[in-house]
Amino acid sequence: MTAGDPGSRPPDWLVEITEALGSPEGGAALCMALGIRPLPCPLPLENSGVFLLAGSMEAPLALWTREEIEVPEGSLVLVSAGEKGALLCRSGEGHTRIVLDPADPRESDRRALTALRDGEDYGQAATSRRFVEECIPLFGSVSRATGDREGSLTLFVDLVMLSMPGAEGEGPGDLWERYRAGGRYGTDRFAAGVAAPSLAAALQGCRPPDSLDVPDRFCKNILEIIERYRFTCREETPAEQEAAVGPEAIALLTEHLAPAGDHSLTGVFYTPVAEVWFMCRRALVEALSVRLPEVGAEALYALVFSQSAAGLPDRARALAALDEITAIDPACGSGSFLVGMLGVLEETARALGGSGIRTMVRAVGEGLHGTDVMPAAVRAAGLRLLLRLRAGEGGGAASPWQNLRVGDTLAAPWEGCFDIVIGNPPYVRQELIAPPGWEGAGTHERQAYKDALIQKAGTVFPALGRPDRRSDLYIYFFLCGLAMLRRPGGILCFITPTTWLDTAYGSGLQEFLLRNVPIIAVYDLPGRTFAGADVNTVITLLGSPSKESDRCLGHPARFVRVAAPPGDRDLAGDLAAVERARPAARDGNLAAMAGNLVKVGKCRAFPALQADLLEEGRDTRDGRYAGSAWTGKFLRAPEIFYTVLRKGQGLFVRIGEVAPFRRGMTTGANAFFYLDRAGQDRWGIEDEFLVPVIKSPRECLTTRIDPAALQYRAFVCTRGKDVLAGTGAGRYIERGEERQVRMRERGERVGAARGYQNFRSFETKKRWYALEPKGGTLFWMKETYERLGCFVSETEILCDCRFYCASAPVAVQNAVNSTLALFLAETLSRSSLGLGARSLMVYEVNRLPVPAGIEGLSGELLLEDRKLGSVFEECGIDPGRPIRDQRPGPLPDRARLDALVFEAFGLTPAEQEEVYLALCEMVLERTGRARSLGGHPRTPPRRR
Q1: Residue 676 resides in a domain
Q2: Could you tell me the pTM of the whole model?
Q3: CA angle, corner 257, sides to 255 and 263, nearest 5?
Q4: Domain check: are 502 and 608 in the same one?
């Protein structure tokens, strides 16, 4: 087929649209090369009319095709004709509809085609996000002009509602002209009801008054932005979306109501639709399995994930069970999970031959419930449910408001009888927990609120005792959610940070769950979920808590790593197969437990009896449960990890047993205690009071630290001021007590004071300036990215709290810097900092295994005094190329050190290579998760 063949021409309507929307002049974004020769491609395209739609001949990004063809996932975007005036862009399982109407061109359509051409996100979420980003500056102007932030938000939300076809008629049309014709122009007052008389009735009083004092110039700007976009009232699904502003824009607008746009204060983050639908489907499978015990897992997964009812003997009974499902989101925000559950219920009902509309109406009226502390968020949730009903022609048959509540779920009684508790509870660090709506809450109010939560948790679950005071807010939502489940048979499904799997405060929850709650599954999905939250996440599925302690120790917990996107419908068979995997009892021996590992399609599962998990996490010294790094051991660990454990039995000790680390110095006033060279010269402080100190990992360029080369000295003085009279040290202390200094708490500026002695952290000290020195000869970086390993010093020097320090013999210094030790530390470390950082607390470092008793490590330091490179440089791996296409080429001194360790462990050459490759893969994945949402792995994480 050649460019001149009649069959090679695209349809006339596509040519017409192309000419209407863009021209090739000036490198316009919409330049489409039409009617060219077939593209060179290894795929069987001989029978398809194929044309370059975007990109170039050398690097096609999208293809126009007359027929459906199979392509490898993620390789191309196929573009085919939908109804007249639309393109269907298909990549993987789902497709995106781009409307191209010459009679009604929209800027958002052009942007979608530009993004398609440039290989960027062009779907519904991206379009909604761009719309909201345009609105935010104008929203700020309107809220300042009116003095009514919530009323201004309602104005924007109402206009989004008004602009959606099917919600209020034909969509926006010429909104500015309609506004002027409504008689309000010149009055500087806006009323949505003027342009959409039925809108106020549809909202049923769940919004502020319909008028707001808004200057006309702002009204014009708002409406002009709206008219640049195409809107749809249909929610995005993993299989179908439109390149238009969807109802999720209501959620995104509401999200920006948080004070100063700082969502870290409220812990509110918008959950992507693919994760929402995965969670709703997975929870529904479990809930239906309780009500339909005669139906196998394969049939239920096929029904809910793939809409195939072939394996169900009694569809009427299944429909009846579906109608009985009740679900609640205890922190519903703007309703993403309620809308997702509504969509999953609808498509499941249709797969069973029932009425999707009837199922949705029943669910909104009786089955779905939501609560949130933000009134605007609850309004947004109701609006989205209303739009979902109207998109299915079910509007008016049920009110979305009757089961939505404004309030603090944690403050209400922890009780209920729901089949499903689902959601994305807020993530708030323990020191920031405060009563909702109390942005200025003081220490007393915060303390009282947290005390009430701790007491309530202990009362509802006596077996738990008192939760750790360091617990994040989402831990209390876990406990509250469990109390809201029907017993037995309820299902909790939350997406949360991974911290509860690894941290000290998570150990109490771990033990409580192991003894009292069926841990159905913990899922680790590819990529990072939230761009705005500095965390990595997991999806946790739990059953109803048992009324008797230790009744759940025989239950198999499953840790599942999913390699496919959560919207992949082919996951149904893999997930069902994972449930068939039955773990054997292993007496808590981790190396033996590795025999439970199974691979099924796109899933890797580590099933383990909860009794084994309890034994594995016990402290060998006192027998108490101390917690375990579940993320590293069961979700992220490569298979070579278990080989190393098995072959290395008897060759490991815990670091803390041979060289206990402790946290470096927290001075409370770095500006006073750390002096650079200029400060040392300026104040004339005697040398006996100035001690070399490592302040930052950036100072450590080589493996060995030379104290004389360090830039900073720590001021260390314990003598009384009377003894110091007339000395440089005495004058320096006096100056510190006289100068005006900024006060900070937890990194935040909280005011100013005269003199460092007035800092709160020094109030109880006899001599405020008496710094407790902490140092050693071995230094572990508290947080790191791609540079792994410890720094060593021949003599003891001090270090800041960015390091952990230990006084260690040469054998330990060599052992902790071996690649095998780096591999074990990477596997077992926390990677919950979503910007790519690896972080371990000091107690976690002391529990890490390190090679011991290996001949040849105790003589001298085996790593030369040279630059410490990234893990890729140290192992001889290029991170820009596929790792599995390379052979490791470690640096010579590292290779000599590693050879001693590998030989002692009896690792084969292939296993040795696997250690290098697996280590580099884990680091690349950890830092790549940050890149997956536009982050940078070397950007220091923001403190929450």
Answers
A1: no
A2: 0.79
A3: 60
A4: yes
Number of domains in the chain: 4
One-character DSSP codes across 172-215: -SSHHHHHHHTT-TTTT-EEHHHH-TTHHHHHTT-SS-SEE---
- CA–CA distance, 916 with 823 (Å, rounded to integer): 8
Look at residue 220 and tell me if it is in a domain: yes
Residue 762 CB partners (closer than 8 Å, separation 6+): 668, 669, 756, 768
Quick one: which H or E segment has residue 600?
strand 598-600
Residue 562 within any structural domain of the chain: yes
Q: ∠ CA 15-21-26 to the nearest 5 degrees? A: 105
For residue 33, which of 6, 63, 12 has the smallest C-alpha distance?
63
Examine the domain organization and report whether 510 and 414 are in the same domain: yes
User: What is the tens place of the pLDDT at every residue in 133-168?
Assistant: 999 999 888 888 888 887 788 788 878 887 887 644
List, for residues 446-498, the tens digit of each pLDDT value: 899 999 999 999 999 999 988 888 888 999 999 999 999 999 999 999 999 88
Non-local CB neighbours of 144 within 8 Å, separated by 6+ positions: none
Residue 52's domain comprises: 6-119
Residues 568 and 647 in one domain: no
Q: Each residue of 23-32: pLDDT tens digit?
A: 333 222 333 3
Give the end of a domain, one of 214, 232, 257.
257
CA distance 342 to 363: 7
User: CATH code at 385?
Assistant: 3.40.50.150
In a domain, 613, yes or no: yes
Question: Residues 879, 924: contact at Cβ < 8 Å?
Answer: yes
pLDDT digits (tens, 9 = 90+) for 883-904: 999 999 999 999 999 999 999 9
Cross-strand bridge partners of residue 420 = 327, 491
What's the CA gap between 942 and 564, in Å, rounded?
A: 29
In 3D space, the residue among 816, 811, 908 whose CA is nearest the CA of residue 853 turns out to be: 811
> Do 112 and 32 sit in the same domain of this protein?
yes
| Among 718, 724, 723, 704, residue whose Cα is nearest residue 789 | 704
Give the C-alpha separation, 807 to 473, whole Å. Answer: 37
